[in-house]
Amino acid sequence: MKIEQLPTPSYVIDQKALKQNLQILKSVADRTGCKVLLAQKAFSMFATYPLISSYLSGTTASGLYEAKLGREEFGGEVHIFAPAFKDSEIDEILAISDHIVFNSGRQLEKHLDKCLRAGVSIGLRINPQHSTQGDHALYDPCAEGSRFGVTKDQFNPDWLEYLDGLHFHTLCEQNSDDLASTLAVVEEQFGEYFHQLKWVNFGGGHHVTREDYDIDLLVASIEHVQKIYGVQVYIEPGEAIALNAGYLVTEVLDIVENGIETLVLDASATCHMPDVLEMPYRPPLQNGFEAGEKAYTYRLSSNTCLTGDVIGDYSFEKPVAIGDKLYFEDMAIYSFVKNNTFNGMPLPSLALMDETGDCQLIKTFGYEDFKGRLS
């Protein structure tokens, strides 16, 4: 079927765009010898893992469930980081993980003996206290009071006897100039320890597949660390892997008039695209423009009872009618991984679009998926 024939709401993953992103990331790995991992927290549609795994070295997980998914469906290396690990889960985590990264010295020391017996590669997250996020404190792991990573003052060189690597993750949707400035601070604070390590993980937030991204600077940064310190470099982007590689298809259910014409959709910001409210984020819309730019402006909202469940104001060249389909773009990342069923809203179906434009429904959801989360 074609995209316009899919039930709504549906997420559609564009495999052609996904493949183009993967080719860019693979070129970075080929040029530098670094290893690129899929950060599953941003994108975990495992129907695409056979394709992604042919380009990347493995996955990174934020907890037990993502680690299991990476091991079962992706293969390759499985890396895991969490602010803290539960005693009831640590044995299973160590059984399926290749790298484990601790967030604090206390966590490292607590689980050290089990890690050594399991033979996993042990890492520690560091915090260079170098913010590059501007006003977006919500996404700044280096903000004052951040719970993420060990600062220079907290670092104990005695840990190096057990550590294979250090991990820093300070970026969010950023270019390589921010990586370069961060790396300079990391080297100043922790570089003396790098010679005793096997690997350094640059974390995620690298928008490598964005059109204006400076790939040469990324390559130079990776090559610098590998040459100077003799370590393996990892990067673990999530967004860059599926950036601009997906759609959310929705239908107009009604039009409400109260000062502005509001389109009531069967997709929801709070349920299906929460970054719209959290970041905030304005998703691109196919054939949609800024409010007032074209002749017909509408407010796009949802079918929930939350007054603020508004996606944004968009204008169109032609009037929109009840029953029309709208296609939000860049909806592969941080979308279905954050879904919820508030108000009993149905979860969108999942579909794949091949390189000819043909779509295949991969999974649909119903009442039992809603009920199964309750008691």
UniProtKB/TrEMBL annotation:
Q: Which domain of life does the protein's organism represent?
A: Bacteria
Which cofactors, by name?
A: pyridoxal 5'-phosphate
Write down the Pfam families for this protein, in alphabetical order. Answer: Orn_DAP_Arg_deC (PF00278)
Q: So what EC number does this one have?
A: 4.1.1.96
Arranged from A to Z, the UniProt key words for this protein are: Decarboxylase, Lyase, Pyridoxal phosphate, Spermidine biosynthesis
Q: What are the Orn/DAP/Arg decarboxylase 2 C-terminal domain coordinates in residue numbering?
A: 30-331
User: One GO MF term, please?
Assistant: lyase activity
Q: In its keyword annotation, does this UniProt entry include Transmembrane?
A: no
Recorded hits in InterPro entries, A to Z, give: Ala_racemase/Decarboxylase_C, De-COase2_C, Nsp_de-COase, PLP-binding_barrel
The keyword Lyase appears for this protein = yes
| Top EC class, one word | lyase
Protein name per its UniProtKB record: Carboxynorspermidine decarboxylase
> Which organism does this record belong to?
Streptococcus loxodontisalivarius
